[in-house]
Amino acid sequence: MQIDLSQLLAVGIKELKLSVPPQLESQLLVYVELLQKWNKAYNLTAVREPAAIVTHHILDSLAIVPYIHGARVLDVGSGAGLPGIPLALALPDKEFVLLDSNGKKTRFLNQAKSVLALKNVTIVAERAERYQPAKLFDTIICRAFASLAEIVALTSHLLSANGQILAMKGKYPEQELQEVTNSAVVHKLRVPGLDAERHLVCILPITPHIKEMLNYA
Length: 217
Description:
single chain; 217 residues; alpha/beta; Rossmann fold; seven-stranded mixed beta sheet; 8 helices; 39% helix; disordered C terminus
């Protein structure tokens, strides 16, 4: 039985209660098709079935839309553009930078940017710890990238004073949370069509005052 991807996507977006551009669904379907095509040669994701791509990747990415703030957003270890590309399509008023050090993946990202005419997206081929942007970011997103402590260590220099790090996780990361000194809030997410645990960890930067206290601890 063939699944109607358009309906699956439309129902999922409705369940997430998102206010999105009218062309979002058609753009996302083009992205899914592009991902499938390039996946054969570039092995961008282990998820192959179109319906699973919609639930496991697209809707999973869109589930964090309400938690993004600020004008500049960085997707660290973007890979196939997840969650960066779905988010950039859903939030055209925000500026997105998709960061990945893998040449094959950044080639795909540039192709996706071109095909989807994403004017609010910049692709950067660099490792997070070496990246030195001209302007810092209000929100940094990490999906299946590293542990919370590693994420903080690798990306804190990229975060604006009032910025936040959003780490997308599966099960509640109890052990990882004990390894970070930053203030963190965990949101439980429900992704339409996905029968699996999803959590979003919001990590705030350590202020100079707290940093001074930690240095003397």
